[in-house]
Design goal:
The complex is a heterodimer.
Chain A lengths: L9 H19 L6 E6 L2 E7 L2 H4 L6 H15 L4 H8 L2 E7 L3 H10 L3 E6 L32 E3 L4 H14 L8 H7 L4
Parallel strand pairs in A: 3-4, 4-5
Antiparallel strand pairs in A: 1-2, 1-3
Chain B lengths: L2 E5 L12 E8 L5 H11 L11 E5 L5 E9 L12 H9 L4 E7 L6 H10 L19 H19 L7 E6 L4 E7 L6 H5 L8 H9 L17 H9 L31 H16 L19 H6 L34 E6 L3 H9 L4 E6 L24 E6 L6
Parallel strand pairs in B: 8-9, 9-10
Antiparallel strand pairs in B: 1-10, 2-4, 2-5, 3-4, 6-7, 6-8
Classes of the chains: A alpha/beta, B alpha+beta.
């Protein structure tokens, strides 16, 4: 939420478009539609989409999926921890929805360079909405050299597209689902 | 003595130092009360002050009763009488009231002591907590022993490594059964974890040096640790505890470890335990993940309200937790739990913010930890995630202080 959307480069839009495409893949798999891509030197090196339902692991957010692809690949290539850290410090993440508190913290731990996101996440957002972990941690007095790293964060890239995906996810609902609670509440005592 | 300490949602504040806000008030004739209250509730409702009573009755020494009424919120600038909204001002004028500024408590009282202090300023209502998560009002003897037992298990797990690491044990408390357990994977400990030849890590030092420097709320008192050589060594050896030093994964000199294929900077004990419990879920209930039988996870995105309205689950899915009152409903007919709903997690160290949020996502019911985490502790030490109202799930947090005999 540091920078305004205006004047964002066409590259930014291209990468966010790819993240949106990942979110659509999630939607088609009945997952909450969030997608992400990680870019190094102008090249997409990983993509990820939400897989929380499939894995039954609610931490498998789009960011985590993309991050894990890289960590695995770089370990396979024999990179050391400091080489991996060096890699992350050159990476930019594009994600359709503001990283949640968990993912924002993870991105800070990895030392990612920059994050671009679509819509804000009022309930869980860790990049300005609920907490501001992208600013880095200033409250860690006893970790002098382990201070939480911040990262540059730009909000609102193709936000309406990201929101539209959420809407279609919740509106399409589940054809097998019972009628919504609120309607039932009118007819059934003590629902 | 070992003990279990509840870590509240809000940082403890002395009852007489509660935050206040300014309001306009006026003394009014008793016969005008009903009319004025009705009128003011319409034009100047006390939206965020529902705990504050609109009317204050004071019994004077001469037997008379003085009735004062809150007109509306005032600015925080004490002397600014002009800030009253136009329509309230009109009431003041037409009833010839003399408005004054007074203070009321900003937040609803959470304890009787707080409430008594609040009423000294202006009367408020007090509703004792109605949630019924076991333990908030005290653990019975059996549960207490069970909590100590599982925490010992977590400590033993942490001790089984050569490096000092955090350990996590996810437990189904109703069956007193371990669902999953894991240690930090953020560093490669493949060599170390093979054997325990290095001997057990002595947590007693840690307990003595850190455990004794806690206030009664389990919060660490910073910068007050003894600087003994042994503590220094201990602190150095604790640099491999992921949640204590989440940003130092690059400093750990593990590169020399042969084909260290299993380090992962984010695979802290809690994250690894969640992964393990999810794998167990997929293994035990392999068929329930098909499309027609899917619970829709609503953890992400700004439209959770929409999602709730259209909660699209089948019988398998559990409805949104209502302050822990529907614990019985955790298990579906197939016995498959929804994520970690109803489960507890035991951690040796207070989780960092990443792990704490992961535990929210996975719907853990209670978090127990033995040692606070002054660097990045998310459940009382640095952040207090259990008190973030916007989250769609909240767990209860306890610190388990183990007596050195059991370590």
């Amino acid at each position: 939420m540091d920078s305004s959307v205006e004047g964002c480069s066409s590259d930014t839009l291209v990468f966010m478009e790819l993240a949106i495409r990942q979110a659509k893949l999630a939607l088609n798999s009945l997952e909450v539609p969030v997608g992400s891509v990680i870019v190094e030197d102008g090249v997409v090196i990983a993509t990820g989409r939400n897989r929380t339902n499939e894995t039954r692991n609610a931490t498998r957010h789009a960011e985590m999926e993309a991050i894990d692809i890289l960590i695995e690949a770089w370990q396979r290539d024999g990179l050391s921890t400091s080489e991996v850290a060096d890699k992350f410090s050159k990476c930019k993440l594009y994600v359709t929805c503001e990283p949640c508190i968990m993912c924002a913290s993870a991105l800070s731990i990895l030392g990612i360079k920059e994050v671009y996101y679509g819509c804000a996440n009022d309930k869980f957002g860790g990049c300005g909405s609920v907490l501001s972990l992208h600013l880095g941690s200033r409250e860690a007095p006893s970790s002098s050299n382990g201070q939480g790293r911040g990262f540059k964060c730009t909000a609102g890239i193709m936000a309406s597209e990201a929101v539209a995906l959420f809407r279609s996810f919740y509106e399409q609902g589940n054809p097998n689902a019972p009628k919504p609670h609120r309607l039932l509440g009118n007819h059934q005592a003590g629902q | 003595m070992s003990q279990i300490i509840y870590i509240p949602d809000k940082p403890p504040i002395p009852p007489d130092q509660q935050p206040t806000v300014n309001v306009f008030a006026a003394v009014v004739e008793p016969k005008l009360i009903n009319n004025l209250v009705r009128c003011l509730n319409r034009i100047a409702p006390l939206e965020n002050l529902r705990h504050v009573k609109r009317v204050q009755k004071k019994h004077l020494e001469d037997g008379k009763t003085l009735i004062a009424l809150i007109l509306c919120l005032a600015s925080e600038n004490d002397s600014d009488m002009d800030a009253m909204p136009q329509d309230v001002q009109e009431i003041v004028t037409s009833y010839q009231l003399s408005a004054f500024i007074t203070k009321v408590c900003k937040e609803a009282a959470t304890t009787k002591e707080e409430w008594e202090e609040q009423c000294k300023l202006w009367p408020t209502s007090y509703h004792p907590p109605t949630y019924n998560i076991d333990g908030i009002t005290g653990f019975n003897e059996e549960d207490t022993q069970s909590v100590f037992g599982f925490m010992r298990l977590a400590v033993e797990l942490a001790q089984s490594n050569k490096l000092i690491v955090n350990a996590a044990v996810i437990v189904d408390p109703s069956a007193k059964k371990v669902i999953a357990s894991a240690c930090d994977h953020h560093v490669s400990s493949e060599n170390a974890s093979m054997s325990n030849a290095g001997g057990k890590i002595d947590f007693r030092n840690w307990l003595e040096s850190v455990g004794s420097h806690l206030d009664s709320n389990g919060a660490t008192i910073h910068g007050n640790l003894p600087s003994s050589a042994s503590l220094k060594t201990l602190k150095q050896s604790c640099s491999t505890v992921s949640c204590l030093y989440p940003w130092q994964w690059t400093d750990q000199q593990l590169q020399h470890l042969s084909n260290s294929c299993c380090w992962h900077p984010l695979r802290h004990a809690a994250i690894a335990a969640i992964e393990s419990s999810a794998a167990r879920d997929r293994r035990l209930f392999p068929t329930s993940g098909t499309i027609g039988d899917k619970s829709v996870e609503t953890d992400i995105g700004p439209f959770c309200n929409l999602a709730k309205r259209q909660k699209t689950n089948l019988e398998n899915a559990k409805s949104e937790e209502k302050e822990g009152t529907d614990i019985e409903g955790i298990c579906s007919k197939s016995g498959r739990p929804y994520l970690c709903t109803g489960y507890d997690i035991y951690l040796v160290w207070e989780p960092c913010i990443m792990c704490a949020m992961a535990l929210v996502h996975q719907r853990v019911r209670r978090v127990f930890y033995a040692f606070p985490n002054p660097n990045d502790g998310a459940l009382g030490s640095v952040h207090r995630l259990q008190g973030e109202k916007s989250l769609n799930h909240h767990y209860a947090v306890f610190r388990v202080v183990l007596h050195e005999d059991v370590l």
